[in-house]
Design a protein that fits this description.
By secondary structure, the chain is mainly alpha-helical. It is built from 12 helices and 4 strands.
């Protein structure tokens, strides 16, 4: 594999300076991953020389000091993300296992999306269903699947029929005071608020005919999925231990 020149990855200099730090870091990571191990001054014996990169390599590119500084910022960002790491006894760096997976802008975009929705922080039932769709950018599908898991869990926990769906299911499950998932230890006002919370969530994000509101940005979709995860954890706490629905 030949080295991918920075000049092919970096757009017009003014555009480059306007790029976000994360986007610059993606360009830099793809470039560093393209170095063969040996036969050059930057990558030798599994080590990346930051000094040679910013001195020897840059002699071939007529970039001003301002762009050098932007790339230094991006290098520091890659370190903080665990994509580059320092060697113990040398001044060199190495590309981590996570960093090795980023060989294109698409790879980096997937990495950034994954960071918006940490898999270990969402309910395991939701993570299993939605994570791949989220990384693909299918945000409407990911949100739909997340709320479907909540709906399935509520139906199973309360022993409701398949015909009862969406808002009506939530109202029945958390009805005050006789709902099968209603926490009677809470004040009556909070019990009612819980019913509104679940029914409102399904009214906005998921109902029997599909979405009324579809997030179009990864940040928005991640927030909605995390909300669904929280709802599912509430259902878990409402389930008697003998029913056996686990996280």
């Amino acid at each position: 594999m030949s080295i991918i020149p920075l000049s092919t990855l970096i757009p017009d200099q003014n555009d480059f300076l306007a790029m976000s730090l994360e986007d610059v870091a993606g360009v830099l990571m793809v470039h560093l991953n393209s170095y063969p191990d040996g036969g050059n001054s930057v990558a030798q014996l599994g080590r990346i020389s930051q000094e040679n990169f910013f001195e020897d390599s840059f002699d071939r590119f007529p970039y001003p000091d301002q762009i050098r500084r932007v790339l230094l910022e991006a290098w520091s960002w890659l370190e903080s993300e665990g994509l580059l790491a320092r060697e113990i006894r040398t001044l060199g760096f190495f590309i981590t296992r996570r960093g090795r997976s980023i060989n294109s802008r698409a790879d980096f975009d997937s990495y950034r999306k994954g960071g918006l929705l940490p898999k270990h922080q969402i309910h395991s039932l939701i993570a299993e269903k939605v994570y791949s769709a989220f990384l693909r950018g299918d945000y409407d599908v990911a949100v739909f699947l997340a709320f479907r898991e909540v709906e399935i869990a509520v139906r199973q926990a309360g022993g409701f029929l398949q015909e009862l769906v969406g808002e009506k299911l939530m109202r029945a499950a958390f009805a005050v005071p006789e709902g099968r998932l209603t926490d009677t230890q809470l004040p009556a006002g909070e019990q009612l608020a819980m019913a509104h919370l679940f029914a409102g969530a399904f009214g906005v994000y998921r109902n029997s005919t599909g979405h009324r509101y579809v997030p179009t940005q990864p940040e928005q979709a991640a927030e909605v999925i995390m909300f669904a995860s929280q709802l599912l954890r509430i259902v878990d706490r409402a389930i008697p231990a003998t029913t056996g629905i686990k996280q």
